[in-house]
Amino acid sequence: MTEPLTSFRFEVVLDLDQPTEGLASPLCDAAFAECSGLEITMEPKVVESASVSDRQQRLIGPTKYGQLTLKRGMTRNLQLWQWMAAGTRPGSVLTAHGLVSMWDADGTPAVQFVLQGCLPVRMRAPSLTAKDGLVAIEELGLVCAKMTVALPGAAGLGFDAGIGARFSASASAGVSFGASVGGSFSASAGGSFSAGANFSLGGGL
Predict the structure, then answer these.
(1) Which of 5, 117, 148, 174 has the smallest number of Cβ neighbours within 10 A?
(2) Does an H or E element contain 79, and which?
(3) What confidence tens digit (pLDDT) does each residue in 104-115 have?
(4) What residue segments make up the domains of the chain, in order of their start?
(5) What's the alpha-carbon Rg for the chain, to the nearest Å?
(6) Per-residue model confidence (pLDDT) at position 156
(7) Rounded to the nearest 5 degrees, what angle is found at the Cα of 185, between the Cα atoms of 182 and 189?
(8) CATH number of 10-43+56-201
(9) CA 53 to CA 19: how far, in whole Å?
């Protein structure tokens, strides 16, 4: 019986499709603490017939991909902001390809989401307050032209939106975020979090 995967062991890697001055690949050393929005939807077309009133015929419609939200602890590394700024210049098409890997209990990739034609559409600065003393979290909104999901080394199960981009798998050791068996966590130097006894959240803050 296959054990279910957990949501806190993962890594997000974003590599630019073309080298760009001032931006490194992977962006921010793949240090992301949260990823949401991995979604594929298909909007079916409804065909109605005057001769058939008790049912609807549904045909395959366009495929759409969710907007990803990536979060990380804000540092002096402003590459996400620079990517956003560069991508908003007229005539600029500064795309990236991404790999979101979910890890098993041994810390090896178990399921991978392959992202192609990624573009930043939103950057959000942390909410600032002097009373809490929490880590400042910045947020990136990301869209992609195509998403596939596969086991490592296997062909992906995905849907083509008509836009392709070259993809090269890469991995980068991110800073870890985790919790100990007792549920506590500790901060390390630089505002990042260190993993606890048994597990860590890949990508990290």
Answers:
(1) 5
(2) helix 79-87
(3) 988 899 999 999
(4) 10-43+56-201
(5) 20
(6) 61
(7) 155
(8) 2.30.110.20
(9) 57
